[in-house]
Design goal:
With about 375 residues, the protein is mostly beta strands. It has a domain of about 240 residues. It contains three helices and twelve strands, in the order H-H-E-E-E-E-E-E-E-E-E-H-E-E-E. Strand 10 and strand 11 form a beta hairpin. It is flat and about 90 Å long.
Length: about 375
């Protein structure tokens, strides 16, 4: 067993900041190294940095409230009116073609109702979908560490800038992105908490002994024929292959460097928060069917902070806009910085098609710009008695 490397450097090695020669705050001894795997860094391993008092290792400290907005709230704007608030019903040929495409995509559906069915009525229902998107920037911090290999150590040289004073390059509006920035003037050198500054840890395979029971003779030193075990030369044990018989392995945390550079990372996230409202209609089609289709865009407004839509023909849409805009601007300004908002209104066409087949009435729906079809009561499937 080789002797501990750290003994050559004395008990205080690594506790002095080489930049300005002042001793760092005292750090309590790390817990005894466990052979069962790495442990979390002790809380007292990290210094207290003004403005970052709530920062912990591994994150989880919560998002930092942004500074108050410098731009005033937007002035109310009247939503533009449109002469075409409704979309005419699709043609019978289009309804039948969409129905045929839908049925052909189902392996157990017979095409008989498509070919033999007679359309008796087509009724159009137009559903409005209001969508509000808020593009935000949020910031959080966490203590991080990496093996010390001579990186600059700047803790205490001057005060660290505040979390919202550090420049970050945002992506284009409404594009998700994440950036990690090392906070200046927070880096200091610490002894590795896992190996106690030795650079090595007991081997978990052999529990630090450097050898283990021979797998050929199961520790007896002999084979079943009472011949001496040639694998272990009759010792009953063999050198541990994981640590080459040393009983210890290089510390994974400091990678054998004995010391860690501790610093604060700033995590900047840009994300789009989205809410939707779909005006109810009397078609009978379930609203969840509309989630994967698009409609005709009637209105679009994008600016720093949007104002609720006014003057829209459907009162429920205007009320939803009022509620969601208020909710977003209250909710997300608590933890994030709002960079841009966007609101749209789509008109989603729905056509209810009634048809007769073998003397019985049935219904299917054609909806969205994609002419999707929903036919819950399709009468001719392989599981159906009517074929």
């Amino acid at each position: 067993m080789e002797r501990p490397i750290a003994s050559d450097y004395g008990p205080y090695y690594g506790t002095v900041n080489p930049v300005y020669g002042l001793p760092a705050p005292a750090m309590a001894a790390a817990p005894a190294t466990s052979i069962h795997g790495p442990s979390a860094p002790p809380a007292n391993m990290f210094d207290t940095v003004p403005g970052y008092e709530g920062t912990i290792a591994g994150g989880g400290g919560g998002y930092l409230p942004p500074p108050p907005p410098s731009v005033p709230m937007p002035v109310p704007e009247q939503a533009p009116s449109s002469p075409n608030w409704h979309i005419p019903s699709i043609s019978e040929d289009q309804a039948r073609e969409s129905f045929a495409t839908y049925v052909s995509s189902k392996c157990c559906y017979s095409s008989a109702p498509v070919k033999e069915g007679v359309i008796t009525n087509m009724e159009s229902f137009n559903t409005y979908r209001y969508r509000l998107e808020t593009f935000t920037e949020s910031r959080s911090t966490e203590w991080s560490q990496e093996p010390y290999t001579g990186q600059p150590v700047d803790a205490g040289v001057q005060p660290a800038p505040g979390p919202w004073q550090i420049a970050a390059q945002p992506p284009a509006f409404f594009q998700e992105h994440k950036q990690t920035i090392k906070v200046p003037y927070t880096s200091s050198v610490k002894n590795c908490h896992l190996c106690l500054g030795m650079g090595r840890n007991p081997c978990t395979t052999c529990a630090g002994s450097g050898n283990k029971v021979c797998w050929v003779c199961n520790g007896s030193g002999y084979r079943q024929s009472n011949d001496r075990c040639t694998h272990c030369n009759g010792r009953g044990r063999e050198n541990c292959s994981s640590c080459s018989g040393n009983g210890s392995r290089q510390c994974d945390t400091c990678r054998g460097k004995r010391q860690l550079l501790a610093f604060i990372n700033l995590i900047v996230k840009w994300s789009t928060e989205k809410d939707e409202f779909i005006a109810q209609d009397l078609s009978g089609l379930r609203m969840e069917n509309l989630e994967k289709v698009s409609g005709k865009e009637l209105f679009k407004d994008a600016q720093y902070m949007v104002y609720p839509v006014r003057g829209f023909p459907d009162v429920s849409v205007a009320q939803a806009s009022e509620r969601l805009v208020r909710d977003h601007q209250v909710k997300y300004t608590q933890t994030s910085l709002i960079l841009q908002q966007r609101q749209t209104i789509e008109l989603i066409p729905i056509t209810k098609v009634k048809y007769m087949w073998k003397g019985k009435p049935y219904v299917y729906y054609v909806y969205g710009n994609e002419f999707k079809v929903n036919a819950d009561d399709y009468p001719a499937t392989c599981c159906c008695s009517v074929m």
